[in-house]
Amino acid sequence: xxxxxxxxxxxxxxxxxxxxxxxxxxxxxxxxxxxxxxxxxxxxxxxxxxxxxxxxxxxxxxxxxxxxxxxxxxxxxxxxxxxxxxxxxxxxxxxxxxxxxxxxxxxxxxxxxxxxxxxxxxxxxxxxxxxxxxxxxxxxxxxxxxxxxxxxxxxxxxxxxxxxxxxxxxxxxxxxxxxxxxxxxxxxxxxxxxxxxxxxxxxxxxxxxxxxxxxxxxxxxxxxxxxxxxxxxxxxxxxxxxxxxxxxxxxxxxxxxxxxxxxxxxxxxxxxxxxxxxxxxxxxxxxxxxxxxxxxxxxxxxxxxxxxxxxxxxxxxxxxxxxxxxxxxxxxxxxxxxxxxxxxxxxxxxxxxxxxxxxxxxxxxxxxxxxxxxxxxxxxxxxxxxxxxxxxxxxxxxxxxxxxxxxxxxxxxxxxxxxxxxxxxxxxxxxxxxxxxxxxxxxxxxxxxxxxxxxxxxxxxxxxxxxxxxxxxxxxxxxxxxxxx
Length: 485
Hints:
Layout: H1 10-18, E1 23-24, E2 30-32, E3 35-42, E4 45-52, E5 61-63, E6 66-70, H2 73-82, E7 96-100, H3 108-115, E8 121-123, E9 125-128, H4 129-135, H5 139-153, E10 161-166, H6 169-178, E11 182-186, H7 200-208, H8 212-222, H9 235-262, E12 268-272, H10 282-294, E13 301-303, H11 320-337, E14 340-343, H12 350-360, E15 364-368, H13 370-383, H14 385-397, H15 399-402, H16 433-440, H17 443-447, H18 450-462, H19 464-483
C-alpha cells in the first residue's frame, strides 16, 4: 500500500483517486500558505501534485481536483517561494561543508541520505561553466533539480548552490541572478604561470619592469619582513610571487566588490588558486591572503594547489608525508586569516581524507562531483550491459576530445578489452583507474548522444533507489574517512 494513502492525508488520498497508479514520495508531503503539495511519480515521470490556494500559480494539468505539474525551472521557483527550505542559502558559520555536484539532476535524494549521519552542510547544486556547457544545462536547471530533490526527501537542513570555477564578472552575475548562494572565483586566467619557471635573471628583469607603485606597495609590506606563519621570504622568491599573483589579487578584489554590490543577500565567496600547474607555496598563500584581508575581502574558503596530484575520479597520487606537511602549513595560514581550506577534485581521495579531517578538525570544504556520474554508470553496467559496453567503447574512441576539457594521466592501454569480458565483470571497469577516468571525462560527450541519453535517463528512473544506495555507500565512505578519529 502506498504509505501516503491514509485518512490523515487528504492530498495523498486525492492523488490516488486521480491516479491509482501514482507513487507518492512519502517524505515530500507538506503544506504551506493554504496549499498541500507532494512529489509523485506518475506515467513514468515525476510531478508535483498540489491542492489549495497557491496551486493555480503552478503550470500543470488538473485532474480530479489535483494539479499535476512538471518539474520545470518555473515551477521550482514557485516551490522555493512556497517552501523556503527548498531554496539554497549561505553556509557561513557551518564548519564542515561539502560540495556534491550533480551533473545529471538526479543525485540529490541520494546525497541527502548519504549525509544523514554526519554534521556536514551540503552544497547540492555545484556546477562550473564547463560542466554546464558539456551537459547543456543552466544554473537555474541545476538549482531546480536540487530543490525538487530536497522536496522529495523532505530535507529541511539547508543546502547551498555553488557557481563553481567562475572567471569573470559576467559569469558571476549569471550565477547570482540564477540563485547561487556561493561563488568560487577561479583566478587562473590572471595568474602568470610562466613567471613561476623564470630563471633568476628573468625574474629580476620582469620584476624591474613592474610599475613603481606596485613594487613599492609589496616591498613595504613583505620584503625583508618577519611575517606570521611563513617568516622571512627571500628576495628572489618574493619577486617571483608578485610576478605570478599580483594581477590575480587585483581581480579577486574587483570580483569581491562586484559581488557585494550585486548580490543583495549573503553569498559565500571562495577563492580558487588551485587551477595551476605548480604547487602553491605557503609564502604565496600568505601574501595573497594578506592582500585580500587588507582590502576587506572575506573569503569563506580558499583552495590552494596542494602537493601531489588530485586527478578526477581516482585516488590521490603523490607523497602522503609531503602532503601532510604541505597541508599543515596551509591550514596554519587559513587559521591565521579565519577561513577554511577547500579541497578540490576531492572525489575518491581516500588516502588523504584522514589528514584533511584531523588537521582541520573538519573545519573544511571538500568538493566532489564526477563520482556521482560514475555511480550512475555502475547502475548502467549492472542493469543494461549492452548500453554500458557501447558507452565504454564510445568513451575510449573519443578520449582525445574529452581531454580538451580535463587533464588525466592514466594509460588507456591498461584497460582490458571489453569484448573479452563477461557482463558480470562490467562494474569492475568503474573500479580500475584508467577505465574509471576514461568514463569520468566522457560524461558530456555521452550525455549529448541521443542513443545514450534516451536509454540512460529512463533506466535511472526505473532504478533510482539502486542509484541512491550507491551514492549513500560511496559518498558515505568519503564522509567516514574525513570524520574518522
